[in-house]
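Entry for the shared binder. Reason: the reviewer on the internal report wants the predicted structure included alongside the sequence.
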Amino acid sequence: MHLLGRNKGITVYGPQGLEQIIRMQLEIGGAELTFPVQFVELDGKEAKMLFEDKLIEITTFPLKHRIPTNGFRINEKPRERSLDGDKFKQDGLSLSYIPRFKHGVDVTLEDGTVLYANDYTFPSPPSKSYAYCSDTVYEEKILPYIQGVDVLYHEATFLEAMADRAKVTFHSTALQAAQIAKKAGVKRLFLGHLSARYLDSAAHIAEAAGVFEAVEVVEDGMTIRL
C-alpha cells in the first residue's frame, strides 16, 4: 500500500501482540509509511460489532483454539429498491415520492389514493453474508454467529481419521466443518488450512460432501462470486 502511494489511514483488527510485530517489522526494515495505521486489539473472548457503515456490518466472535482466536461475519445491509422509471414517468408522479418508494414505503395522496411502492419499484437483490472461521476445534457455540450465511469459510486441517489429532491441536476435520455448515444452515462451504501432509484436497471434498454437498476447497488467488 505504501509503495502504491496510499495516504488514507487503515484500521487493523487483531490479537494482542500484532501491533508490536508489525511495528517492529516496519522499524527494522526502515519503512516510514505514507499513511497512519490504527490497531484495535481483540481478546478472542466476546462477540461484538467491529465496523458498520451504510453498506455493511462486520462482527467478530470467539473461536476455540489454543490461543485466543477470532471469527468474523460480514453482512451486507439491505439495498434500496430500484425505481421503475418508465412506470413512474408514465403516471407523472412527483419526484418527492422516489425516496419513499425506494425504501418500500407507500404514498397516500390527499384524496385517499394510495400509490404502492411495489408498483413503481423492482425488488432489491438479496443481501449477502460471509463468515470466516480460521483456526478452531469443532465448536457448536459459533452456530448462532454464522447462521444462514451465504458463504462459510471453515478450517479443515485434518481428515476424520485424524480426529484425535485435530482435537489435541484445536483444529477441525473436513467432516466436522461440514457438520457445522449443515447445522448452521449455510448455503456454501469453503474449506481451507489443510495440513501439508495431504497431497491434494480430493479426500477433504469427498469427506465433507457426505454431509454437506455444496463444498469446495479454497486455493490461493481464488475468486468466489456470491
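Summary line for the report: The first strand starts at residue 10 and ends at 15.
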